[in-house]
Design a protein that fits this description.
47% strand, five-stranded mixed sheet, 740 residues, eight-stranded mixed sheet, mainly beta, 59 strands, single chain
Length: 740
Amino acid sequence: MRLRLSIFLLFILNLCVSSRAAHLVGGEMTYKCLGNNYYEITLIIYRDCFSTGAPFDPAAAISVYTQNGVLYTNSLVPFMNNIQQLPNVAPNNCTALPKTVCTEKGSYKDTLYLPPTPGGYVISHQRCCRNNTVSNINNTSSQWGSTFSTTIPSMDTACNSNPKFVNDPPVVLCLNVNVKLDLSATEPDGDSIYYELCNVFNGGSNINGNVAPNPAAPPPYTPVAFIGGFTSSNPIPGNPAFSINHNTGQLTGTPTQVGQYVFAVCAREYNNGKLISTTSRDFQFNVSPDCQSTTSRIRLSNGKIVTNPSPQVSGKSAITICSGGTMSIANASTNASDYYWDFGDPNSLTDTSRIATPTYTYPDTGTYVVMLVVEPYTICADTAYAKVSIYDLVQTNYTYSGDLCFASHSVNFTNLSNYSPNAKFFWDFGGNTNLGLTDTSEHPGNVVWDQIGAHYVQLTVDDFGCSGTYGDTLYIYPNPVANEVVDKVETCVPYTVQLFDSSYVYGHAQHFWDFGDGYLSNDLNPIHTYTTPGTYTITHSIRSLVGCLDTSWSIRQNYITVFPIPSSGLAIEPREQSIYNPVFNIRNLSQNHLKTLTFLPNDAVVENLTEMSYIASDTGTFPIIHVSFNQFGCTDTLFDSIVIRSPFNLFMPNAFTPDGDGINDLYSYTVTGVTKSLIEIYNRWGEIVFKSDDPYEKWNGKLHNYGPMLDAGVYSYVINVDVKKGAYTYTKVGVINLVR
């Protein structure tokens, strides 16, 4: 039996969904009459091995009610510590079941004295909760628990024992695998048994924390509500549907959907047509996609997996291998360790292999039947056949020729592939052409695209069911068009222009610029300065270096006009005067001008100056700006200056009193009309006690102004000054009295 795995289902059975998850799987209640009104009561509980909830309770509350719902007795029955793990029983000996499911079985036993009573007894145990992941009931909030009960007949003087199931239930059913389960029971009293799928009863709840009611609630009990079209008689999706033989207790059906399914099977005991007692087994089936059977599967060199149930291989099932005589074969079988291959070569007696993944070389192309037997000579043997047609690989190639410039392009293709006269061709031009997007010609010609740019052209050749594909990129190039960004201007000399290339060209191109004044450039975006007045034409040409090897011209006729500028000039005499005679004579020497403006130091503006006298009012250096204008609006600006100097004066005090009273505490001198000064002060031993080239720095009577205070007394000085920017040096020697 083989089972093809469903790839997308990764159903993990019996996992704890949350801290509240309680994975109770099922249970059943039976009794055995011991005589003298004593009955041995057996409660069996099934639970998920991996569950963190719903453990085997240390003691189970087993409650006995009369038929009118009155509690007769309630017992806390100790757990027998007899935990058993149910075996994962496969559909046959050649199937391996998943290891992700596990069910434990535990039991509680007690002996009760139950004298005959009208209506008999109902014996019950209730426990919450079922799996949150059950597929056929709404159990997302763990509201559903279980009630396990059985009945002792009314006025049981015959010492009746109810039916007891022979076999433990299976843990796993396999998806899409036929089920034939023996759910029969034994009946020690010789009464007849009627089997049916019956109601599953609720009991206990996680909502109020009453997960194990003590005592159990009285009868009658509420059936669990099924969802999604499921019922107690149709609890598992199947095709054929699940059903139980009423006489033998054999459950049959084929599960068609992965999931967890709650169900119950009842063994009803009859005597002379009268119902005496019922044994109900409440249980949960896990339908898994992960069952694996010993399956023979062949993975051919084209990647296809072949599994055939019989040697009847039709022509339509033939697989084409396009790699020539040698075929690599991968083994995709499951649960197998022994193999036998027959490659179907009629010209060889050694075309067999016992290794898992063989390689075989056929002497010629043709059609062969490959056989794989896994686990040969055993009851788990399985056989797969594959009809294989061997052809040589189609070697596909092409070339093309023609003009590739867009304005005049036309391309011819030559098919260089190896193929038979029956071959078929498929061209994909990678864009719209005059032939369309595709073509089936052997050698398409005069192909014209409607767009420039790269076009990936792919050729596929189909021959004997084999195909080969080859593709290449060709480029339809734009014809170059020279262009540039430049403004048309009329301006004054000198004028610097920045030219920007905006040509339409593919790849790199050579640039040739002629500025019209005798200067040339090959830069992409050149900068040029016009220094001579005139009107100039700019010529720009490009030559494409890639694709269309063509030249394009752009001419900017009379685009740049450069006007002359006037020449500004002034005569200032003299340029330097003493403050005692600050008079300057200024004459206009400008040429080629229409008018002039002269800006004087006193903020006066003289228009069209010819000659004037200017009298300064203060010492210093003062600017004179002279601007000339011509008829084109061009200007020339001259910056000049005059200097008015102070007369030379030097005053040297002969005493100061650095006693901190704020009066004459610092020694300083006054000097004007000089550009440089240096004073040195000596004590009577000829040692310098103060020195400075800053006429504004004062002596505070301390050694070098930051040492100890010097003694009162007479100090000598030497001062040197430069008069008229070094025209001559003046030196003066004297004494200073430091008075305390």
